């Protein structure tokens, strides 16, 4: 297979790295090197920020309906290029076919949604009585950096960048070094086919320390949207604190999925399984702590294990793709050991799959642990693989207590036929998104963000559009 060269996209053109250096990109389904990715440095960051700064006035001052039209055109182009974009993502992440296609449609939806909302950024008039005219304006921050993870590369890029662009900001995206291809291709399509002006959307590739840090520290970057681990989020937060830089942090999770005894178990069992196995568990919102009412515990555990038994790890149409990075592959194996040491019972999985037919890829087994308490490490730490644990509870109050006993607070699910209970419990769960009777229900329209260590700020929905503007108040003595 030919090794592809991937380079930055700055000011509307492909740009080689100032350092002349590249990092290797891998195909997780085989472990083979598939690309050489430009290893950016502060010099490349300077060039991208200068391009974004120069492009800002014209983009910011463009009539919003015209800006929105360009983003809507990007949505059309994304759908037209969906096969190639999904193929790039599959090569770099190992995603199952259906997963990759679904995520690319999500990318189009983000641009469609925020393209349509570009005109919705309105100010308000404030009544100070006679003698004054006072009003607010929502203004873009300016140059924005979007620092991105590898698990849903283009989808998360779209989630951060489309509202930022709709609000009139210019953007520098910094993808994970493991997954730069699709974001680079989108930037090219946007400029060459959709009329996005040069410099409005730039991509600098490379490592967190060498590109991410200089981006956050750059004096002309006015806001950062960071999606990734708590560890890196803290580092970004420290630098941002020095600069008084507004920040959106979308970090990790250890989300509870609560099944009450009155739930329709024929819906709940496959729903709970999807909730933690989607994208081979590499989903920040994955429902990996399955809290089950004691009276249905054994029944549900058997149903979950049964529906997982038929799932295949492998490439292409198999349900469970590989871990996208070697580090993640090793991390899941460490948690198999931790679970063993903590005395959890693997109802299914708990060790690497039979390597036969897996072509040397970074595959792990979908795993369900029972006999778990909420203080074990496997119940407290984000594994970010297809691994969940089941924890029994006796009462609604205990379910809420266990659900909230975590440093995270990104998502939470609950399954019940009792409408009053659904609202009551939803109100008491400390998490940014709550799902009732369908885990991960929602769309580009529904705001997302963390409580506690899962982060702050909101993405998606109208909420995100507001997060990419600040409010100016003008008061005139008449
Ligand atoms: P990561 O934190 O290692 O890297 C994320 C990005 O930050 C990468 O582009 C990386 O190069 C960059 N980076 C690393 N250190 C940096 C620093 N000091 N300064 C600036 N940039 C830096 O995360 P990952 O391994 O790529 O992704 C997995 C994590 O992301 C998981 O914890 C997952 O839960 C989280 N995640 C959260 C969401 C969400 O919406 N909340 C979505 C997807 C993934």
Description:
With 478 residues, the protein is α/β, with parallel strands linked by helices. The protein has 2 domains: 273 residues, Aldehyde Dehydrogenase, Chain A, domain 1 (3-Layer(aba) Sandwich); 191 residues, 3-Layer(aba) Sandwich (Aldehyde Dehydrogenase, Chain A, domain 2), CATH 3.40.309. It is 41% helix and 21% strand. It has 15 helices and 21 strands. The radius of gyration is 23 Å and the shape is globular. The protein starts with a strand and ends with a strand. The mean pLDDT is 97. The site of nicotinamide-adenine-dinucleotide (NAD) has 29 residues, from helix 7 and helix 8.
Helix tally equals 15
The percent of residues in helical segments reads 40-55%
List of distinct ligands in this structure? nicotinamide-adenine-dinucleotide
**Low-confidence runs:** none
What is the CATH architecture annotation of the largest domain? 3-Layer(aba) Sandwich
Overall pLDDT? 97
What structural category do the secondary elements indicate? Answer: alpha/beta
Largest sheet, order of strands side by side? 15-16-17-14-13-18-19
| Fourth-level CATH superfamily of the largest domain | Aldehyde Dehydrogenase, Chain A, domain 1
**Biggest sheet, in brief?**
7 strands, mixed
Secondary structure: elements and pairs:
Elements: E1 4-6, E2 8-10, E3 13-15, E4 22-27, E5 32-38, H1 42-61, H2 64-80, H3 82-93, H4 97-117, E6 125-126, E7 132-140, E8 143-147, H5 153-166, E9 170-174, H6 181-194, E10 201-203, H7 208-217, E11 221-227, H8 230-243, E12 247-250, E13 256-259, H9 265-277, E14 289-293, H10 297-309, H11 326-342, E15 345-348, E16 367-370, H12 377-380, E17 387-393, H13 396-404, E18 411-415, H14 419-428, E19 433-436, E20 455-456, H15 461-467, E21 469-477
Parallel strand pairs: 1-5, 8-9, 8-11, 9-10, 11-12, 13-14, 13-18, 14-17, 16-17, 18-19
Antiparallel strand pairs: 2-3, 4-5, 6-7, 7-21, 12-20, 15-16
The protein binds nicotinamide-adenine-dinucleotide.
Nicotinamide-adenine-dinucleotide (NAD) binds next to helix 7 and helix 8.
């Amino acid at each position: 297979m030919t090794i592809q060269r991937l380079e930055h996209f700055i000011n509307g053109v492909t740009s080689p790295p100032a350092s002349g250096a590249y990092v290797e990109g891998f195909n997780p389904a085989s472990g083979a090197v598939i690309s050489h990715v430009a290893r950016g440095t502060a010099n490349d960051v300077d060039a991208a920020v200068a391009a974004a700064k120069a492009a800002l006035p014209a983009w910011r001052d463009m009539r919003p309906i015209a800006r929105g039209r360009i983003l809507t055109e990007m949505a059309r182009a994304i759908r037209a290029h969906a096969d190639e974009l999904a193929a790039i993502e599959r090569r770099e992440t190992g995603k199952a076919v259906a997963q990759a296609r679904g995520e690319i449609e999500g990318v189009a939806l983000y641009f469609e949604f925020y393209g349509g909302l570009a005109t919705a950024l309105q100010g308000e008039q404030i009544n100070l009585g006679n003698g004054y005219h006072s009003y607010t304006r929502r203004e873009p921050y300016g140059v924005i950096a979007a620092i991105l993870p590898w698990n849903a590369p283009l989808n998360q890029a779209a989630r951060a960048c489309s509202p930022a662009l709709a609000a009139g900001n210019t953007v520098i995206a910094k993808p994970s070094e493991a997954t730069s291809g699709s974001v680079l291709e989108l930037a090219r399509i946007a400029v060459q086919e959709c009329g996005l002006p040069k410099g409005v959307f730039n991509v600098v590739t490379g490592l967190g320390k060498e590109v991410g840090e200089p981006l956050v520290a750059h004096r002309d970057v006015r806001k950062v949207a960071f999606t990734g681990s708590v560890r890196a989020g803290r580092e970004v937060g420290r630098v941002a604190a020095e600069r008084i830089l507004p920040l959106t942090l979308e970090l990790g999770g250890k989300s509870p999925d609560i099944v009450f005894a009155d739930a329709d178990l024929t819906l709940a069992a496959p729903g709970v399984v999807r909730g933690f196995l989607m994208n081979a568990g590499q989903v920040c919102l994955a429902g990996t702590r399955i809290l089950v009412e004691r009276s249905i515990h054994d029944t549900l555990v058997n149903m979950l294990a049964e529906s997982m038994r038929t799932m295949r790890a492998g490439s292409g149409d198999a349900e469970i793709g590989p871990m996208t990075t070697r580090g993640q592959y090793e991390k899941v194996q460490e948690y198999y050991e931790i679970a063993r040491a903590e005395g959890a019972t693997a109802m299914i999985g708990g060790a690497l799959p039979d390597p036969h037919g897996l072509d040397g890829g970074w595959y792990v087994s979908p795993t369900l642990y029972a006999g778990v308490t909420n203080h074990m490490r496997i119940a407290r730490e984000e594994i970010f693989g297809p691994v969940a644990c089941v924890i029994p509870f006796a009462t609604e109050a205990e379910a809420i207590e266990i659900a909230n006993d975590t440093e995270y607070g990104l998502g939470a699910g609950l399954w019940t036929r009792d409408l009053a209970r659904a609202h009551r419990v939803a109100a008491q769960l400390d998490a940014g998104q709550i799902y009732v009777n369908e885990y991960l229900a929602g769309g580009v329209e529904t705001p997302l963000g963390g409580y506690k260590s899962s982060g702050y700020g909101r993405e998606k929905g109208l909420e995100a559009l507001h997060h990419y503007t600040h409010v100016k108040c003008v008061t005139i003595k008449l």
